[in-house]
Specification:
Shape of chain A: globular
Oligomer: heterodimer
Order of helices and strands of chain B: HH
Mean pLDDT of chain A: 97
Strand content of chain A: 5-15%
Largest sheet of chain A: 7 strands, mixed
Distance between the termini of chain A: 56 Å
Largest sheet of chain B: none
Radius of gyration of chain A: 22 Å
Shape of chain B: elongated
Structural class of chain B: mainly alpha
Distance between the termini of chain B: 14 Å
Chain lengths: ~400, ~55
């Protein structure tokens, strides 16, 4: 065993590079979170004053208050932090009766696996395919009828999908769910924490979010927010009794296995919260920057945006046939684009990709956006691609 | 030893400037002034730590 491998673990990516990684932008910590983590990195440090035996009831640091404020922020009744959005989905599916989960066909794999882990079957809702890849929301009705509303455990819609960054009209699906009386789960992993979310207005019975994707928090952090109607179902407390000891754990919430996220994840999420509450008000500016960057990239011959256009999110999918053509003849093949970007101190595009790649520019300054646009244009020109 | 944490906090504020200005780190006059002030405060904290630990 070479234990030297674990000495001096180090990363200075965000300080020296512009990081366009599609899953990383919304999870970049605020300075407040970074300061808090130094103080609360020790294992059970948030549990100094755990007097009631449950994490969400701790008042110092103010975890109890944070849960209430988080629910208010999302305009839901009750919220809990989970070890990732995937666990939140599993908890919901596991708590609801019914054989099927109706799911959009661009949902994250964890939505599928969470349903599987809960013993549910899947029924997918189609998307329009190339080149907009929009979920056909009208099809939810058809799918519910196909399996029978009594057999539907839940309907899931990914608010913004991870592949194309398309924003879905949640209210439309909520209306269908209400009509059939089936629970509606809105996966806001790419929206809650970066753009304003009003759960009640959107008609969601459950809001799922991600701290490390969109709430400027350390991983793993997820959010499960729900209404009073479903809170007792998904946050039901333990009834188990030891047959020898007679021990019971009545205060513990079963799906959360008692207490969940402690230490760095919860403390960074709390410390970032004031800034997150503020930053969602500036979402329009973030979209404006994304649209500007997309327009600049489209000056390059052969570059096309896949997904909604005009785009409504900072995560977008680029098809670049021109870079792909260059890669066929380039000595570094598909790695040339990654390497050229890296030379210019830009990372986050997956190494080896040229034909299709995703970018997320959330939180970059206008200067950084301009820098990225210029870098792509420079690489195109260097490789003989026409720039308009 | 609150000073140790306070010094780290000031360093983190500098880190934030580095992140916002990556990759060129061409600081505006305001940012330069801000970072200089932070360094000054860190030095003060370090002095206090030295005194406290009788170094």
């Amino acid at each position: 065993m070479n234990l030297d491998l674990y000495k001096n673990l180090f990363r200075d990516v965000e300080e020296n590079y512009i990081n366009l990684n599609p899953i990383q932008r919304g999870g970049v910590l605020t300075p407040e979170a970074r300061k808090a983590i130094v103080k609360f990195a020790d294992g059970y440090s948030v549990c100094d004053f755990c007097l009631k035996g449950r994490l969400d009831l701790i008042t110092k640091p103010p975890i109890k208050q944070f849960y209430e404020d988080l629910a208010e922020f999302l305009n839901m009744d009750v919220a809990r932090i989970t070890p990732g959005a995937r666990q939140a989905k599993r908890m919901i599916f596991n708590s609801l009766e019914g054989e099927y989960v109706i799911i959009d066909s661009l949902a994250h794999y964890t939505s599928y696996v969470a349903a599987e882990a809960s013993g549910k079957k899947i029924k997918e809702v189609e998307n329009t395919g190339y080149d907009k890849f929009e979920i056909i929301l009208e099809k939810y009705k058809e799918k519910i009828e196909e399996v029978g509303e009594d057999n539907v455990a839940a309907v899931l819609l990914t608010h913004v999908d991870y592949l194309y960054g398309n924003l879905n009209d949640a209210e439309k699906v909520a209306k269908t769910c209400r009509k059939y009386g089936v629970p509606f789960v809105l996966n806001c992993a790419y929206t809650a924490g970066v753009m304003p979310i009003d759960g009640k207005k959107l008609g969601a019975d459950f809001i799922v979010g991600s701290g490390h994707k969109s709430f400027a928090a350390s991983a793993p952090t997820g959010i499960l927010a729900t209404t009073d109607e479903y809170a007792d179902v998904v946050f039901r407390t333990s009834k188990v009794k030891g047959d020898v000891s007679g021990r019971m754990f009545k205060v513990k919430e079963v799906e959360l296995l008692g207490c969940t996220v402690m230490g760095a994840p919860i403390i960074t999420m709390m410390a970032s919260f004031p800034r997150v509450v503020e930053r969602v008000k500036h979402w329009d500016e973030e979209v404006k920057k994304a649209r500007y960057l997309i327009d600049q990239l489209r000056r390059i011959d052969g570059i096309k945006l896949l997904g909604q256009d005009p785009h409504n999110h900072t995560l977008f999918h680029i098809e670049s046939l021109s870079f792909f053509e260059v890669s066929k003849k380039h000595k570094r093949k598909g790695f040339f684009l990654y390497e050229e970007l890296k030379k210019r101190k830009i990372i986050g595009i997956q190494p080896g990709l040229t034909k299709h790649f995703k970018i997320n520019c959330y939180g970059l300054t206008w200067e950084q956006i301009e820098y990225v646009a210029n870098a792509f244009i420079e690489i195109a020109e260097k490789n003989g691609i026409e720039v308009r | 030893m609150r000073e140790v944490f306070e010094a780290i906090d000031h360093l983190i504020d500098i880190l934030e400037v580095l992140r916002k200005t990556a990759p060129k780190h061409e600081l505006s006059d305001e940012q330069k002034k801000y970072v200089s002030k932070k360094i000054e405060r860190i030095n003060k904290k370090l002095e206090k730590i030295k005194k406290e630990l009788k170094l």
